[in-house]
Predict the structure.
Amino acid sequence: MEREYLERCLAELDEDFRTAIELRYMGEMSYTEIAETMGLPIGTVKTYIHRGKTELKRVMNRRRFVDSYKKEDRP
Amino acid sequence: MSCEKFEDLLPRYADGDLSAEEKSRVDEHTAACAACRGSLAFYSELETSLTSLCDLRPSPGRTAAAVAERLGLRPRRHARRSFVNVPAIVGAGFIVLGIALYDFRSVVADFFARVGIGASNGYSRAVTDLTQGAVQVSGGSEWVLITIYAGVFALVMLIGSWMVLRFVKR
């Protein structure tokens, strides 16, 4: 998975999901540290991260579909 | 169980956040379902890609750990902030002392006098001495006496507030 592509897809996520994922993977924070930073319970942080990944999958599928449609549409 | 119910479990599986029981349920399902197997492969790849983001972008924690490793030091654990703040407690004590001196001096003196331990009690004697000293300085004038008490009270409260604010904010 290309870095730039991943970052573009991340930018399309809801702010809460994106923040939780960025703190986890770019900030290398534990769930407890993220919970303290965002002022949320640990369970909610985990839900945001996992829902964020599910959303990321949807975003990537949509992009792939749009890209393939554009390619087919090209003369 | 339908594939929709596994959709939430698959990212958690890739993150290693499932119990042994949930993990075996996912294993069982993905062995029989090609679509969910594909999803699981996607989440595993996503996990690797997300983890590699921090390899390229140095975070403060990573930098500190790398520097400590290069210097041969053990990385320091995050210092826990202590809730016992001695200067703040002393400051609060000053405030209580200020209130006691100004508002309750007569009540305390009366109490000890009534109980009959006024002469032998150190605190009561100190309050009495302080009052007598203030009366002597004031020359018997009530207004001078009030001013002296107000000044001492204000000074003690000021020191107390300053200490509490300075050390609680730290």
The two ends of chain A are 28 Å apart (CA to CA). The interface with chain B takes residues 1, 3, 6-7, 21, 24-29, 46, 49-51, 53-54, 56-57 of chain A (CB under 8 Å).
